[in-house]
Amino acid sequence: MATDSPARSLDEIDLSALRDPAGIFELVELVGNGTYGQVYKGRHVKTGQLAAIKVMDVTGDEEEEIKGEINMLKKYSHHRNIATYYGAFVKKNPPGIDDQLWVRMPVCACVSAVQFGVC
Questions:
Q1: CATH of the domain at 85
Q2: Does the residue 1 lie in any domain?
Q3: Which helix (H) or strand (E) holds 65?
Q4: pLDDT digit string (tens) for 32-58?
Q5: Cβ 30 vs Cβ 37: under 8 Å
């Protein structure tokens, strides 16, 4: 089996191995909503550097789709029409509340009500 097959690509990221964003990034303001989550302007706690952070609930039903989205970003983020992937975190929540995946991407000026979007 080739290592770049679709079945293999879904296994490339281990959500349980991702760090918690607490103390690293904070969400500043909501800038948009998507099919699988919300996009926030976020800030690195120590440096103040801004980033776009897509926040998605990690449910068992959608976990494979989420993995696929991250793997596609990782593989193709060098393309000028696809958001650059800077990394991901998983915010662990108490039992009964879905964990949250935070995907970090660059912030750029766009024509929108809040003047921020994802490149």
A1: 3.30.200.20
A2: no
A3: helix 63-76
A4: 997 778 999 999 999 999 999 999 998
A5: no
User: pTM value?
Assistant: 0.74
Q: By residue range, what is the domain housing residue 46?
A: 6-118
The C-alpha atoms of residue 73 and residue 58 are separated, in whole angstroms, by 17
The C-alpha atoms of residue 72 and residue 50 are separated, in whole angstroms, by 23
17 occurs within a structural domain: yes
Number of domains in the chain: 1
- Please, which residues have CB within 8 angstroms of residue 108's CB and are 6 or more apart in sequence? 116, 117, 118, 119
CA 9-97-62 angle, 5° bins: 25
In 3-state terms, what secondary structure has residue 12? Answer: coil
